[in-house]
Amino acid sequence: MDAVLATFLRALAFGTPLLWAALGEIVAERSGVVNLGVEGMMLLGAFFAFATAQLTGSPFLGLGAAGLAGTLAALVHALVCVRLRANQYVSGLALGMVGAGIAGLLGRGWEGTPLGKALPELSGITLSGLVLSGLVWGFLYHTRWGIALRSVGESPAAADAQGVSVPLVRSLAVGFGGFTAGIAGGFLSVAYRPSWTEGMTAGMGWIAIAITVFSGWDPLRAVAGSLLFGTLFHLSFRLQGVVAPELLKMAPYLGTILALTLTTARRGSRIQEVPEALGVPYVRGER
Amino acid sequence: MRRLLWTLVILLVAGLGAPSTAQVRKLKAGWIYVGPIGDYGWTHAHDVGRRIAEKTLPWLETTYVEKVPEGQVEAFIDRLVKGGAQVIFTTSFGYMDGTLAAARRYPDIIFAHCSGFKRAPNVATYMADFYQVYYLNGLMAGALTRSGKIGYVGAFPIPEVKRHISAFALGVRAVNPRATVHVRWIYEWFNPAAAKEATEALIAEGADVFAFTEDSPTVVQVAAQKGLPSFGHYSPMYRFAPRHIVSGQLVHWEKIYVDFLRKVYNGTYTPRNLQNVDYWWLLAEGAVELGAQPGMPVNPVFRPRLEAVKVRVPGIGTVSVYDLVFRRLREMSGSPPAFDPFTGPIHDRNGKLRVPAGRRMTVQELITMEWAAPGIVGPWPKEPK
Q1: In whole angstroms, what is the distance from residue B250 CA to residue B31 CA?
Q2: What are the chain A neighbours of B218 within 8 Å (beta carbons)?
Q3: pTM as predicted
Q4: DSSP state string for B137-173
Q5: Which residues span the domain enclosing A98?
């Protein structure tokens, strides 16, 4: 029982940044915009959270700075691919690299110091992540605004005809995605492992994008996906004495893909989960 | 007034210009790094070495490129050569073949490849190895564990890391014959999250002292949160856990860089005579150091606990672990070292004799060793039967 509880707590801790980042990506993609720059936004969040928390002594201010940095970075993406209608995939990849580069450059010399005042690992960030997924779910499926956002992602022309501003909704959704990715990165540098190292997210942004897709763009299933990934990730070290480590190394990825594919497949026939206009820039009057 | 001003200007220009023209030739050296210099591990340490070399040698000019993928080293060597580099250091094992290929195209440039084993008339190899320091850390870990279980987070199961874990385990067993070293692999040189979860897994299994091979202070931080002692790795990590870090391994690449560059500069090394130049530098040469911070071999916080544990050592008698650590450190700092952890008889963890009595392992044996020392628990890929 102790082992189960311990594993669950580890899953919560490791799943927290995945959940935060995935929630934002879900909202952005529901509005029809792919943002592959999650890793870069997380790194910016991690750096600004660390630097701010170190300079002010307040990890909460650090998290604020992380959210702000993520939002600003995402708004650049929104400007490029919503306003200027550039290719979302290219812009997102570029954002990922530029974000990682800027964070690395600004972070020079910060890597050798621990954070003076850190947050406990399991804190309000984890709890509010769980609450936030409920809120996002309620927002998407049970509010007029949520319906507007989803229709922008499904059929922007129809939404436009209804008087919904497609660029505005998309920009806000992408901005929100940046905010949560920033918080996810901030969590890493002020709570999960209170220090800064270049490239410290080590691929978590990509896992968050995977969870977005495999959860079928559903915020509640993203909670399950994050926890599942967290569990398997932890177990991949716990079970090394019993199972070959090479196999365990793949397990979290394989398990998450499998479980989420199964849950999506069961509902898949009834509901087409992929936002219809995902990745397609909207130009009024075309089509 | 104007004349005075002009005189001043002329004097100033002459003053600035004179040394550079009067002074002798410069030497330009370039470094190729596999990671970012902000990793606080391997690449960071090499870059610290480069900066110290530049400060120490007035005639040295340096340049570097970071985050160079292992397959692309040749293209970056081209770039450094075009930029005028006369000596090029390639600092990752995976650069080996690329470095040799480039060396054939640039026979007049001097290359030095870190951690490899292939040389050429213009390619030397160099390595600062930690196995002696790991042994010393093992002595302390064996004395500090209460549960008898010591946790080790390893990067990749390759000979270098295996050698270090085995040296560590030999140290542990020299003090505490029943203690075990539990190993978890993360299959990455740098991944703080993986290092963290691996440490958590080891804690859940009862490990209460930690050592590791990963390029961030994660293991030290996680152990300290639980109040458990640990050993730093590669960079000074004392500040991350001043009350819980015991000691660790520190590297001084500058010792090798300064020596090598001096010998290039004074003509000892030329692009034609490096075939047998291999730096395998240890404690005696000062290329590695015991401690979590330069100048502090053992964190004073742990001195009483280490002095309280007494062991009987053949040939020495009964000593405290604290004294034993410093005695072995002294012995290994001599040239040639009076003590080596890999002195026979040594059996592997399956009971097979690996080093016959009275023999020391050779460098060649050390850099290819795959077996596990007694006391090591956990998966050990490619373990010889």
Answers
A1: 20
A2: 193
A3: 0.88
A4: HHHHHHHH-SSSEEEEEES--SHHHHHHHHHHHHHHH
A5: 2-268
